[in-house]
Every structure is written in structure tokens, then in C-alpha cells.
Design goal:
Layout lengths: L3 E5 L4 H12 L3 E6 L2 H14 L5 E5 L5 H14 L5 E4 L17 H23 L3 E6 L25 H23 L5 E6 L14 H4 L2 H4 L7 H13 L8 E3 L17 H15 L5
Parallel strand pairs: 1-2, 1-4, 2-3, 4-5, 5-6, 6-7
Helix pairs in contact: 1-2, 1-8, 3-4, 4-5, 4-9, 5-9
Length: about 290
């Protein structure tokens, strides 16, 4: 039986390498990106390495609820099943921007968009079980501070260092989402994984000021992983038949092993509150 995977943020970086690796493993791969030009180039690169693979491209801005809904409809129309969903897309914006729906754009792209897309594809993933959902998060979540559930998506001025704080908040939201999703999918055959791929040389911080991009981290460039190296852990969680598919948060080490999550991620009331607030913000019915 042909296996099908959808990878967001697949036009470049980790997402493209994940798509490439899954295609080499024989998956039919849906590559999701914002730019048709970059998406077409990425798809061509993957086809060059896996000429027999079936590759499709999908386009949509994850910061827009309408575009995410349209994206999900196209995926559901195209695929009769879905074995793997990799929520990889993310941004780290230098300045605060407002999404078309009035939310902080970084929060909308990194959390609300993946939350909505997963919710819309949930029934197909359950129908296709055993299946897997992989959320690409970050150890940066530990710097998020206290989360205001009622206001986490509100736009505002970032200020000095504020972009890093908001990015960390989006990564905490990723983990709270993944943990709660795992609980809600228990017994369905859908495994949920979240991981930190480690420091990776990608275009994620292209919008950041030069000092932020070329400071201590890039001064240690040899320590940065390539997108191909970072993709290995994602692919293992997504597709390795010998890997324990029990839910977990995995660090940026090889081989992956379970990390002790922070008290915030282990707080069931916080997870539930974030889930319910996210449902309200994206317009999903409670489930």
C-alpha cells in the first residue's frame, strides 16, 4: 500500500530535506509552502533525487485561517489516506506583524496555522491509522516565561529582544498542542511526536537583525547542523518502522531519547486551556 506524507515548510531547509528523505523511502509526498516558485524548485530538487516518487505541491499561508482551510480541502481532495503529517513550517520575525485575521503573525504561523491544519486533517489521519504526527518544536520554549492563555495571540510591539520571547512562546504552544493532541488521540492509532532539531543552519531567522544572526551562535558555525542532518530525527519519528511510536518530546541528540519536559508542558490544565483557546481563535468545533 502506498504511504502518503504531508510536510509543511517544505520549500527549503529541514522541510525540504524531510520531503526528500521520505520520497527516497517510497512515500508519496505533499510538499506545502507559501511560494509557488520556491515550492516548484524544491519539488524539482526532490524529484531529481527520487525520480520514481510521487510528489505534489500545495501552497498556502499558514498565518491565514482562510488559506489553511483551503489548503486542507485541497489535501483532502487529493489524498485518500494520510500516514504522516509533519508540522515543520515556522518563522522568526524581527518585528511584530499582524496576520490577516488580527493575530500576532508569528503566533499565527507557528501555532494557530498548524493547529487548524491538524484539526482539519485529523479524521483522515485517524482513518489511516497507524499514522503519525510530528511537530517540529524547539528547546527555545524554555525561555517563554509565563503564558497568558487569554492573550497569547494578541499582536503587539516586540521591543528589545521581544522577538525571541514571542518565538519561544510559539514553541511552548507547539509542545502544549502536541501533548494535548496525544491525549485526545490516545487509542486511535495515531502517534504524536514533538522534537527539537537542534541549532540548524536554515533561513528561519532571515528576518532578524544582523547582530542576532551572526552573534555567538553563528560564531560557532561548525556546531550548527545542516538541514539534512536535522531532518534525520524528524524522518525517524515520522517513518522508521523500528522506532517506538509512543508519544514523546525528543531532544536534538542522536539517537533521539525522551526529554523531561518542563512543568508547563506537563500541566494538563494549561494544555487544555491552550487547546480550547486555540479552537476559539481558529474557529474549530470543540472535540
Amino acid at each position: 500500500m502506498e504511504k502518503i506524507a504531508v510536510v509543511t515548510g517544505a520549500s527549503s531547509g529541514i522541510g525540504r530535506e524531510v520531503a526528500r528523505a521520505l520520497a527516497r523511502r517510497g512515500f508519496r509526498v505533499g510538499m506545502v509552502g507559501r511560494s509557488e516558485v520556491r515550492g516548484a524548485d524544491a519539488a524539482a530538487a526532490v524529484r531529481a533525487d527520487a525520480p520514481d516518487a510521487r510528489i505534489e505541491t500545495f501552497f498556502g499561508d499558514l498565518s491565514s485561517r482562510a488559506e489553511v482551510r483551503a489548503l486542507a480541502e485541497r489535501i483532502l481532495d487529493r489524498y485518500p489516506r494520510l500516514d504522516v503529517l509533519v508540522n515543520n513550517a515556522g518563522v522568526h520575525l524581527r518585528r511584530a506583524k499582524v496576520s490577516v485575521d488580527g493575530f500576532d503573525r508569528m503566533v499565527a504561523t507557528n501555532h494557530l496555522g498548524p493547529f487548524l491544519l491538524t484539526g482539519l486533517l485529523r479524521d483522515l489521519l485517524v482513518k489511516s491509522a497507524p499514522s503519525r504526527i510530528v511537530v517540529v518544536a524547539s528547546e527555545a520554549y524554555r525561555r517563554a516565561g509565563t503564558l497568558d492563555v487569554a492573550r497569547f495571540a494578541e499582536p503587539g510591539v516586540y521591543g528589545a529582544g521581544g522577538s525571541h520571547k514571542v518565538y519561544a512562546r510559539t514553541k511552548l504552544l507547539n509542545l502544549l498542542f502536541a501533548a494535548e493532541l496525544a491525549d485526545r488521540l490516545a487509542g486511535t492509532g495515531v502517534a504524536v511526536h514533538a522534537l527539537c532539531p537542534g541549532p540548524v543552519a536554515t533561513g528561519l531567522g532571515r528576518d532578524l537583525p544582523v547582530p542576532s544572526r551572526t552573534g555567538a551562535l553563528l560564531a560557532r558555525t561548525p556546531l550548527l547542523r545542516t538541514p539534512e542532518q536535522a531532518a534525520r530525527a524528524v524522518v525517524r519519528l515520522a517513518a522508521d518502522p523500528g522506532y517506538d511510536t509512543g508519544t514523546g518530546y525528543h531532544p536534538s541528540v542522536r539517537p533521539a531519547r525522551l526529554l523531561r519536559a518542563s512543568p508547563a508542558v506537563r500541566d494538563p490544565e494549561l494544555r487544555r486551556a491552550v487547546w480550547e483557546r486555540s479552537e476559539q481563535l481558529v474557529g474549530l468545533p470543540s472535540r
